[in-house]
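Box 3.1 A note on notation
Throughout this textbook, protein chains are presented in two layers. The first layer is the amino acid sequence; the second is a token string describing backbone geometry. Keep the layers aligned when reading.
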Amino acid sequence: MVSPASASAALAALARLNAAAPPPAVVHKSQTVDDLVRELLRPMLKEWLDANLPRLVEQAVEREVSRIASGAVRR
């Protein structure tokens, strides 16, 4: 259903998640699965945002400036 490149990227991300998982003794009984997943994903999300957010914001701003500029020219 997905390309080999997408499957490989997903497997690599899951392997990183598995490597970051604390040993079972560290997980507290009162901790829910949601809490555990949130805790494990937070560093991965931060890394992705640090790497990609500036570029995404720059692209969005460029598109908006182009849209505004082209609208101003047509008037």
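The chain has a mean pLDDT of 84. The chain has two helices and no strands.
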